[in-house]
Amino acid sequence: MGINKKQTLEKLYAFRGMDKYATFGKAQTGIIHSPDDQQDVISNILDECCKHLAIEIESTTRPVKSSLKEIIVTHMDKIMQAPVNTENKDFGYHLCWFLAEKAGVDLWRNSNTKVWGYWSVDDNKVKTVTRVRKRKTA
Questions:
Q1: Which of 1-5, 79-83, 98-102 has the lowest mean pLDDT?
Q2: pLDDT tens-digit series, residues 51-74
């Protein structure tokens, strides 16, 4: 089952046009009071991520989920390296997760290696946490 391109693109375009801090600010207490320059940095990274996701979805008849995942992880790296405080980075990570859900990308969570449940930071790079299945014992 693939993603519905039209609906996904509508969601991505709507996300790009909204004020992220005003719209999603209630999800993280106090984030609305962060400095404007830091809000601009995170908003610009999220808008760029959204733009690249839209381009990838529009350019192919059936977008490959691994390329969509790569776009999201790349922008999570940019958030990690951005000159903003931890609260703004966390806010950006949460919205990247939101974009992943809207684009139909599975960033599966694994509680034993989580930073925010869906990724971890290793060697200054954001890595998605891969699912580790337990062996069935008979």
A1: 1-5
A2: 999 999 888 777 788 888 889 989
Mean pLDDT of 90-104: 87
Distance CA 67, CA 56 (A): 8
Give me the mean pLDDT over the 101-119 stretch.
Answer: 58
Task: List the domain boundaries for the chain.
Answer: 5-105
Let me know: does 101 contact 46? Beta carbons within 8 Å. no
CA–CA separation, 131 and 125 (whole Å):
19
Determine the CATH number of domain 5-105.
1.20.1480
Under 8 Å CB-to-CB from 96, ≥6 apart: which residues?
Answer: 46, 49, 72, 75, 76, 79
Residues 46 and 78 sit within 8 Å (Cβ to Cβ): no
